[in-house]
Design goal:
Blueprint (H helix, E strand, L loop, with lengths): L10 E6 L7 H15 L3 E6 L10 H7 L3 H11 L3 E5 L9 H10 L11 E7 L7 H13 L3 E2 L4 E3 L15 H24 L25
Parallel strand pairs: 1-2, 1-3, 3-4, 4-5, 4-6
Bound molecules: ligand FNR.
InterPro entries: Flavoprotein-like_sf, FMN_Rdtase-like_dom, NAD(P)H-dep_reductase
Protein name: NAD(P)H-dependent oxidoreductase
Organism: Streptantibioticus ferralitis
């Protein structure tokens, strides 16, 4: 039984979490955006340049409120059912740029992460594809109540991994990414239509969490 007034195509925000022009994570984000669009979902394709903001400073927040870039990210998350981040790994963890953006947006009330699903992907020239960074990225997102999809996708040797038209050279990997994206959207679609993943409790102290009983999709 539908539980809200959003029966339309899924809305998914996709962005790469690096600023440089030739970012492999921007390229991976573009590929994921294309795969999502192929399913009929609506893609909001962003870059970190859309979310320019200073380093978090509580005094700045008290005096001026949230910077425009943080509010823009909040708005675009809020308008989506789910978001996909393609993030580099910096020193085995989350790039400061991305963590700073999450920290600013977490100051909005109600913070928008708590009702969203997320798929995490990464690209790196290393053999591990930046996968450790994604495990680190799960922590703040899950702390904020985001439903982070269990499967992740990490693209190793990313500088050699793309074809001229933006697909993956390795057709098996292309297939795996396609299947991961589709499985993620199936879960998001089920939750949007049937609200099967409501949260009863998560740790973030900034939200009241007396939510209804969690219903997990089973069977
Ligand atoms: C890196 N890089 C990197 N790569 C990796 O796989 N594990 C790591 O821990 C790090 N650490 C790291 C720290 C810093 C400060 C920089 C600048 C870079 C390399 C990184 O994966 C590489 O620069 C990618 O190309 C970054 O992604 P984009 O910019 O191509 O999207």
């Amino acid at each position: 039984m539908p539980t809200d007034s959003h029966p339309g195509p899924l809305r998914v925000l996709v962005f790469g979490a690096a600023l440089r022009a030739d970012s492999t994570n921007a390229r991976l984000a573009s590929l994921v955006a294309r795969l999502i669009a192929d399913t009929g979902a609506t893609v909001d394709h962003a870059t970190m340049h859309d979310f320019d903001m200073p380093l978090y400073d509580g005094d700045v927040e008290a005096a001026q409120g949230l910077p425009g870039g943080a509010l823009a990210l909040r708005d675009r998350i809020e308008r989506s059912d789910a978001f996909v981040i393609s993030s580099p790994e910096y020193n085995g963890s989350v790039p400061g740029l991305l963590k700073n953006a999450i920290d600013w947006v977490s100051r909005v009330r109600p913070q928008p992460f708590r009702t969203k699903h997320a798929l995490l992907v990464s690209a790196s020239p290393s053999l591990f594809g930046g996968n450790r960074g994604l495990w680190a990225l799960r922590v703040p997102l899950e702390h904020l109540g985001t439903r982070v999809y269990p499967d992740m996708f990490s693209l190793a040797r990313a500088y050699q991994a793309f074809t001229g038209d933006g697909r993956l050279v390795d057709s098996d990997l292309q297939q795996r990414l396609t299947e991961t994206v589709r499985a993620f959207l199936t879960l998001v679609g089920a939750d949007v239509r049937y609200v099967c993943l409501e949260r009863r409790w998560y740790e973030f102290l900034g939200d009241r969490t007396e939510a209804p009983v969690t219903q997990r999709a089973e069977g």
